[in-house]
Amino acid sequence: MDANAAKTARESLDIAFQMSNILDTGLDRHTLSILIALCDLGLNSEALAAVVKELRKNLGPLTPQDAAPVP
Description:
Layout lengths: L2 H20 L6 H12 L4 H15 L4 H4 L4
């Protein structure tokens, strides 16, 4: 990826993250970038949203410590 493409991708993610925060989705930047990448690969966005909702319902809120690898 060239420098312009990387800058554009970063700016697009920043805008999407701001929108996510305004809508109070609770998605962190990393999770949002993964979801966007999956949509770019052709996965159905509504199906991904349903998966996220189901995971949240079953797992409850996670803290950053939950995502940290165990040494």
